[in-house]
Amino acid sequence: MKDATPSMVLLSEYRAPDWVVEDLDLRFDLDPASTRVESLIRVRRAEGAEAGAALRLHGRDLELLRLEVDGKAPESGAVTTDAEGLLLTGLPDSAAITVETCIRPEANTALEGLYVSGGTLCTQCEPEGFRRITYFPDRPDVLTRYRVRLEADASRYPVLLANGNRVEAGELPAGRHYAVWEDPFPKPSYLFALVAGDLSCVSDRFTTRSGREVALEVYVEHHNRDRCAHALASLKRAMRYDEDAFGREYDLDVYMIVAVEDFNMGAMENKGLNLFNAKYVLASPETATDNDYVHIEGVIAHEYFHNWSGNRVTCRDWFQLSLKEGLTVFRDQEFTTDCTLFGVKRIDDAQGLRAFQFPEDAGPLAHPVRPDRYAEINNFYTMTVYEKGAELIRMLRTLIGREAFRRGLDLYFERFDGQAVTTEDFVDVMAEASGRDLARFRRWYTQAGTPRVTARTHFDSRVGALQIDLEQETPPTPGQQEKHPLHIPVRLSLLGRDGRVLPARLEGAAEATEFVVELTEEAQSFRLSGLREAPAAVSWLRGFSAPVRLDAGQGTAELAHLVVHDDDAFARWDALQALLRRAVIARIGSEPDPVLEAALTTAIGALLEDSGIEPVVLATLLDLPSHRELMESFERADPVAVDAARHAVEQAVFQPLAERLASGAPDPGRWDDGAFTAEAMGQRRLLNRILALRVAIGAAGAVEDAVRQYREARSQTLAMGALAAVNDSADPARGELLADFERRHRADPLVLDKWFALESGSQVGDGLARLERLLDHPGFRWSNPNRVRAVLGPFMAQNHRHFHREDGAGYQRLADYLEHLDSLNPQTSARLAQPLTRWQRLDPARSAQMRQVLERLAGKDLSPDLADVIQRALAR
Ligand code: BES
Ligand code: ZN
Question: Whole-prediction pTM value?
Answer without folding.
Answer: 0.98
